[in-house]
Amino acid sequence: MPRRGWVINQIKTPESIADHTFRATIVGWVLGKEKSGLNIEKLLKIALVHNLSKIYSGDITPYDSILAQSKKKIKEIIETWPKFSKAEREKICKKKYQREKKALEKLISKLSPSLKKEIKNLWLDYEKGLTPEGRFFNQADRMENFLQALEYWKKYKKPSLGPWQEWAKEFFDDHLLIKVKNVLERRFLNSKKEDDNEIRKLTDFLTEIGRLKDIKRKGIMFYGVKDPETTAEHTFRMTLLAWILGRIDKRLNIEKVIKISLVHDLCEVYVGDITPYDGLLPEDEKERYEFVRKWPRLLKKVKEKRYTQKFKKEKQSLEKLVKKLPQGLKKEIFNLWWDYEIRSSKEGIFVHQIDRAENLLEAFDCYRRDKSFPTKPWWQHAEEVIDNPIILKFLNEISKEELKLKS
Predict the structure, then answer these.
(1) Does residue 25 form part of some domain?
(2) Up-side HSE of residue 327: CA atoms within 13 Å toward CB?
(3) Which domain holds residue 310?
(4) Residue 306 resides in a domain
(5) Are the CB atoms for 363 and 373 separated by under 8 Å?
(6) CA angle 231-234-239, nearest 5°?
(7) DSSP structural state of residue 51
(8) What is the mean pLDDT of the chain?
């Protein structure tokens, strides 16, 4: 689901809501670490659920009520980006809130009572700013919007920056986020004014991970899928899945599970989505399908060599990405990624298996859209590593749904 605000601004292939949520979650985490007294696990969960209502409500903007069908009129509105009175804003926000609340309740209606309550309370916290975490993430979420606006402006010279800068001055009141806003503006406007060095390092990192919104997942493309999920989209749903299923196992540290999920593919920022098939695939499409289908049964030594090469490239990429971060954050991100790669903790093992489960879920989504899509290789790929009983139960439910569709 593309972000409607960017569609209105006529941005080509705009980010999706999942893309936005991925980076907004990391923005909340990275900047939240700089604040004292925040519960980071709670902040991360608020970030993951804050846009779930849009599944059924759609992406509502404050300007929907005045947007005309005429392209000319839309352009005028974009250029002026009208201001509403306090009464108008309150009316629009109330209507949006009621619609999204109803949509969220529909989405979570069949969940267990405890999970339903947790998700709804987290969403309400974001909407109403009930706790320091909810209030901070509400602004961190808008900071991701602001950063994306600057990036699109740099690339396309739209949207117009004036209204965004004016909005940002009015909206941000957190001292840290005001500093971040100022550094971002100077960075994108090529200002020579000296920045707070630590804040500049954080904003550089947050800007770089935005690349993951444009990196398409190659594995699914080998089967002819024209518009596969991005790395950012995959990471968002994988992280949500890791939290939801991970909470069932009381031995797991859920904050660590969420963080490992968020960082596991940051290594793709500079090297892209590397697959074990790179450089080996036949040109012919049918031969390529057959090759990929047989890959799980290829000689173990061949696979090990390819994965070793992949690991080295990705490690170098991650080291480059985190090189200038503050020492504590740099070490944390690298150690979380390393845990995922070598599965050195129960959380690392769990998330590694969740990754395979999300891959299978994406393949199942493709099958629902196109019954000719081959899901067998994805089942083989998942079954190679998944032995966690909770994840196996989840896969069993996918299998049941697939059988229903086949019958």
Answers:
(1) yes
(2) 0
(3) 218-406
(4) yes
(5) yes
(6) 120
(7) T
(8) 91
Exposure of 300 by Cβ count < 10 A (0-12 exposed, 13-18 middle, 19+ buried)?
A: exposed
| Residues 395, 258 share a domain | yes
pLDDT digits (tens, 9 = 90+) for 293-314: 665 555 566 667 778 889 999 9
- End residue of a domain, out of 140, 157, 175: 175
Round to whole Å and give the CA distance between 332 and 329.
5
Count CB neighbours of 345 within 10 A. Answer: 17
Q: Give backbone dihedrals phi and psi of 130, rounded to 5 degrees, phi first.
A: -80, -25
- The string of pLDDT tens digits covering residues 318-362 is 999 999 999 999 999 999 999 999 999 999 999 999 999 999 999
Same-domain check for residues 120 and 264: no
- Supply the CATH number for residue 398's domain: 1.10.3210.10
**3-class DSSP state for residue 215?**
coil
8 Å CB contact between 45 and 64: no
Q: Give me the long-range contacts of 53-57 (CB less than 8 A, separation at least 24).
A: 53/100, 53/101, 53/103, 53/104, 53/107, 53/123, 54/1, 54/17, 54/100, 54/103, 55/1, 55/103, 55/107, 56/103, 56/104, 56/106, 56/107, 57/99, 57/100, 57/102, 57/103
The residue whose two tokens read 């916290």 is 125
Number of domains in the chain: 2
The Cα angle at residue 262 between residues 258 and 265, in degrees rounded to 5: 140
Of 32, 48, 22, 18, residue with least CA distance to 122: 48
